[in-house]
Amino acid sequence: MCGRYSEKNDLKKIEDQMKLRLSEKAKNWKPSFNIAPSQLAPVVTSDEPDLMDVFHFGLVPHWAKDKKVGYKMINARSETLLEKPSFKPLVVNNKRCLVLADSFFEWKKEGKEKQPFRILLADREVFFFAGLWSSWKDPDGEIYNSYSIITTSPNKLMEKIHDRMPVILTREEEKLWLDPDQNPKDLLKLLNAYPADSMEAYEIEHDASNKKWNDYNPCEIQCDH
Q1: For residue 35, what are the contacts with CB-CB under 8 A and spacing of at least 6?
Q2: Whole-model pTM above 0.85?
Q3: Which end of the chain has less neighbouring CB within 10 Å, N or C?
Q4: Which amino acids are annotated catalytic?
Q5: What integer is the mean pLDDT of 190-194?
Q6: What is the pLDDT of residues 2-27, one digit of tens each?
Q7: pLDDT at site 208
Q8: Contact 74, 59 (CB under 8 A)
Q9: d(Cα 22, Cα 110) in Å, to the nearest integer?
């Protein structure tokens, strides 16, 4: 699964690099070393592929009775996207999105202990996870936009740490994932593990499972990898 990740870059920098507009909410969003479920984070949706907005991490389907369901839907398995009633309509109806990140965290079991790792790309400072998004209306009529990160089987680097990993898209795949004219079944072919030789992983001392941990830069502590 992918339950914690980071995006420490100022979105103004991203706006200039990627030629994206920022929504008003995105303009006020603060970079985070530890994005946790329910928190707001940057996304680009298929509805407005030239706009970066901020949605809540953890998908809340439009039919949900309570937004707390989002804590159980932070991830969507690529292998069953077109089988699950919560996700199939989003894939088919182009409710697809890109989730901005610069790294993600995962925990390796070592006996009774779990060692946290930070994983990033060797050749790209920022990248996008493949995601799905939805809009939910609360009892007061307020719109709550949210998303889920798609996961897949691990590559050779990640399988030493965990049995799942988020789907990271290449630049060309990002365009295809948002393209409304793509056949949903063809899109499933994009949801593979990113090449292991283009990724890096190292142990970190702080436990990213604590969402209060967000004032520490994991880049400062590295080990051999």
Answers
A1: 4, 5, 6, 7, 41, 57, 101
A2: yes
A3: C
A4: 2, 106
A5: 97
A6: 999 999 999 998 888 898 999 999 99
A7: 65
A8: yes
A9: 42
